[in-house]
Amino acid sequence: MQQFRIAPSILSADFARLGEEVTNVIQAGADLIHFDVMDNHYVPNLTFGPMICAALKPYATVPMDVHLMVEPVDDLIVSFAKAGADIITFHPEATRHVDRSLSLVRDSGCKAGLVLNPATPVYLLEHVLDKLDTILLMTVNPGFGGQSFIPQSLVKIRQVRDLLDMYAAESGRRISLKVDGGIKVDNIAEVARAGADTFVAGSAIFGKPDYRAVIDAMRQELAASSKE
Ligand code: DX5
Ligand code: ZN
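Above: the input record for the complex with zinc ion. Below: its predicted structure, written as tokens.
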């Protein structure tokens, strides 16, 4: 049976009550806490750094999934690992040496992943699969919450799913396939059928008063999708 995971993005949480928001969304069923780091350089927005990550760590009883939208990445990889990140993903365009930065994530004790923007080609993954624990496919352009899912992403999700299934058959190792941007109750099943196993959702969850109701509705959609 396929195991699906839901990763609420605290980008859409109430920033004045972040610790409480993390606690509440974990009680509502979050499997990971997705932490969007933006530097106003790689993306045109500015969020939070390692100090906020460290402050939230005691509230995060599930893995802290750090999505770096920063350039360059290496110094911040080390800082976020020290701040309590469990998973660190970054964009290949944001570092000169992708293979070296991936090694740095693992050497710092975290799971490593690459993030592909909507226009970034899948072949960038091919020579570093052994160094990846997760792949994050952006289903919007990075930088802001609350954007609409780009429908063309479904083709790319299927393409990466095929690549990962082939890799798992050869290596016996499974790499998780996560999607990020515009994921809602009404499209999560279609995205799961295309091959994603982990779903980042910000505004869909934090935009509603009852986080559990949204996460439960997402899980129902996912359960129905895997029976089809
Ligand atoms: C966008 C971020 C996303 C964002 C998703 O750059 O990487 O994680 O929070 O937000 P929604 O779910 O609202 O599209
Ligand atoms: Zn993200």
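Notes for the reader.
The longest strand covers residues 33-38.
Residues 9, 34, 36, 67, 180, 200 surround zinc ion (ligand 2) (CB under 6 Å).
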